[in-house]
Amino acid sequence: MTTQDENNPPPGIIWRRTADLAWNDLNIAGTPLAGAPVYASDLGVRSSFYRMAAGDMLKKHRHMKWVQVMVVEGAMEVTQDGEEPFVARAGELYFVQPRHPHTEKAIEPSLILITTAEPPPPAVKKRPS
C-alpha cells in the first residue's frame, strides 16, 4: 500500500484543509461570521465551515430545509422554542429539522461545519468608506 500525496488526492475525493480555504464574511441569521465553503453539489447539498467567537449568537431563526451542524472545535448552546437548551461540544453534532425556531450561541471560540440543502447565505454588505 502506498501513501497518497497530500496535494494530489485520489480521483473521486475532495480534500480540504481549513487553513487553505477562502474565508468570507457572511450573514448568518443576521450575524456576521467568517465562513468558508467546502463543497456544493449539483443536487443542492452544500457544506461550509464557520468560525464563531465566544458569545457570538445566531438570533432566533428557522430553516426551510434540514441543517446538520458538526462542532469541530469549541462548544455551542442550542435552544429550540419550548425546549431546554443543550450544549453540543467538539466532536458532537446536531440536526435541525425544517421550520423549528431556534437560537445558537458559541459558549467558547468555535469552528462548526454546516451541511444543508439550503442556498448559501449572503455576503455581509460592506459600507462605503
Automatic annotation (TrEMBL):
InterPro entries: Cupin_2 (IPR013096), RmlC-like_jellyroll (IPR014710), RmlC_Cupin_sf (IPR011051). Residues 50-104 form the Cupin type-2 domain. Gene3D superfamilies: Jelly Rolls. This is Cupin type-2 domain-containing protein.
